[in-house]
Amino acid sequence: MTVLGRTLKLRLYPNTIQAQQLLAMSHEYQCLANLTSQWVFDHDFPLSPLKINHALYQLFRQTSPLNSQMIQSVFRTVVARYKTVLAQMKQHPYRYQDEYGKWVQMPKDLTWLFKPIHFSRPQADLVRNSNYSFVNDSTEVSLTTLEKRIKMSFTIKGFEQYFQSGWKLGTARLVHSQGKWALHIGITKEVADFTVGQQTQVVGIDRGLRFLATAYDHMGKTLFFSGQKILLKRKKFLENRRHLQSKGTKSAKKKLKQLAQRENRWMADINHQVSKTLVTAYGPHTLFVLEDLTNVTFNTDDLPKSLRNSHRSWSFFQLESFLTYKAQAIQSTIVKVSPAYTSQRCPKCGLIERANRHHETHEYHCRQCQYRSNDDRLGAMNIALLGQKWLSGVRNPKIKKITTTG
User: Fold this and answer.
1) Cα–Cα distance for residue pair 111/86, rounded to 1 Å
2) Which among 93, 174, 227, 273 is most buried, taking Cβ atoms within 10 Å?
């Protein structure tokens, strides 16, 4: 069985007094989280809530109005944040050239941090039934504060289905942003695993800038997701960002932050749309095959100079993440394969020749068998081929260099 995870977002409607109580609790939680983070940093990063509990629990109980359960939540919150940072650091090792000019990778760990992780915003992680619960036929939510529990109404627009279809509610995070209160609840559900069978179909997906995604299925049909309008909008974001950066004022910096948040929300929305369209178009029992784009850059010669950094800031990993969890929900799955030669191999005769791909016309033209195709479509075809090999039992399928056939 596969465990699906989602985040249920509730909009809370506290009155003035309740809002003050929530703010006081979240500030206290933030303060203890920063004290705990400092202790973890000073003691060689022990990422065990039990060890932190032995060192700090009695001190916090004597000096803080937070209850016992909330103090334990503080420890778990800090440990989870450090583990997240550690995972991110492992994905981006330090690279340097040795005395022979060879590039060497050195893995990073938490000792590379110059200062402890700082919790900059008030927050609180609440345990179900202990710190939050639904009352009055689930029309109100009851929350722990520094004084007593309080009840308030909430709305859950767009998430009603998760209350009625077997999802289990877990820890919730109290969030305060722009004067509004929300409760983000982690929920889980078990679904059947992806299994290989006669109904399994393979879909190769090539990701890029001119087309965000190009999908090629076992029927020989191709689905294109154009990125032209997205590139133009990104150019507008870039121009606005440069204009604000040139000012350097306090208000400009505030607007820069708002602009970045708006761009991130827009990017996430686009990736949600693309991933949802893919899983809807191909349905259950589908093997979606993606290139492993770790440390891979895209050719940007055919893009305007102002957009040639787009491949560095567009969230291709986010699209992969969204597609992964959406696929799992319908008994489909994702496999990543090596990107080597996927844009250079002719799917008809197998010739691998870099010069066969013409970036200026976005076309692949094989000089040996005269096969022609859109270059993004060709990449998706070769990725689908590697998916078929994976399906037949090859665990790490790769395209091998062949310069001539006979």
Assistant:
1) 10
2) 174
- List the end-to-end C-alpha distance of the chain, in Å, as a whole number: 48
Q: Is the dihedral of CA 245, 248, 249, 254 positive or negative?
A: positive
Summarize pLDDT for 36-69 with one digit per residue, the tens.
999 999 999 999 999 999 999 999 999 999 999 9
> Which among 58, 103, 112 has a CA at the least distance from the CA of 85?
112
Q: How far apart are CA 281 and CA 275, in angstroms?
A: 10
Which pLDDT tens digit goes with each residue over 99-152?
888 989 999 999 999 999 999 988 999 999 999 999 998 889 999 999 899 999
Distance CA 144, CA 70 (A): 9
pTM for the model stands at 0.76
Q: Cα 395 to the chain's mean position, in Å?
A: 25
Encoded amino acid at 80, one letter: A
Q: Distance between CA atoms of 314 and 267, rounded to whole angstroms?
A: 8
Amino acid at 132: Y
Residue 403 and residue 351: Cα distance in Å, rounded?
6
Read off the DSSP letter of residue 162. Answer: G
Residues 108 and 94 sit within 8 Å (Cβ to Cβ): yes
The side-by-side arrangement of strands in the sheet containing 180-191 is 123-126, 168-177, 180-191, 2-13, 150-155, 140-143, 132-135
Query: 368, 406 in Cβ contact below 8 A?
Result: no
Burial (Cβ within 10 Å: 0-12, 13-18, ≥19) of residue 237:
middle
